[in-house]
Amino acid sequence: MSTPLTLTGTERPDGTPVLTAAGEIDMSNTGAFADALAATPGRVVVDLTAVGYLDSAALTVLFDHAGRIEIVAAPLLIPVLTISGLGDVATVHESATGAPAPAE
Asked: Is residue 78 a part of any domain in this protein?
């Protein structure tokens, strides 16, 4: 059984693609998460502000795309992203409000 995860693709006003995830990202649904990232060409903002949990399988997907992603995450996920080292290879921003990534 797959853990509930909603993935939505949008664009910022400047045309930058945004992939918004809501729910939990774990080994049961990382295939869909990886497919959505792979289907988004070039630089992409990954909005994780509505994600309450991610496991090592989710981190692996993020690491696979680290060179082209900018992550916006709720404060709850920042320690996981920092300890994993993802912040050293990808841009990671904390969303102070837990709201979706702001349009620039």
From this structure: yes
